[in-house]
Specification:
The protein has 3 helices and 10 strands. The strands form 4 sheets. A 3-stranded antiparallel beta sheet has the order 1-2-3, with no helix packed on it. Strands 8-9-10 form a 3-stranded antiparallel beta sheet. The protein has a two-stranded parallel ribbon with strand order 4-7. The chain is globular.
Length: 166
Amino acid sequence: ACNEKGFVVEVNGEKQQLEAGTSVWTAGVRGSKLMEESFEGVKRGRIINKQDLTIEGHDDIFVIGDCSAFIPAGEERPLPTTAQIAMQQGEHVAKNIKHILNGESKEDFQYVNRGTVCSLGAHDGVGIVYGRDITGKKAALMKKVIDTRAVFKLGGIGLAFKKGKF
């Protein structure tokens, strides 16, 4: 559970307080129920972002990933909850935090759609990469490359080796 001091975790049946000045909540597939309990206007665990990825009334709170319902300027529907979008949002928030620390203005988020790939087993897949259709072994290989890149960006070469991505 999250509180004003950080997080309370349970290890071997014993609750412990982990103190943190900054809390980062990560969740999967669906936005956190915590969002619905904390803010108005949250649907299915997702809250609408402003263009800089903060939320209305809270210029110091960035929301990304599965909790984010980011609607690009001029569009009507939010972007889907995909890893590609979440990773771009994470990188953008890091830049905006740097801007804040340097006394500069935050920048609006611009999503770059690089395509989508789906593996259909170890040696088969389908996808669209930079507007080109790919299938079969090429798609499966591209999916492995994308996964390896994501793991590498999160934890460096050590994590990529540990997760068996090479």
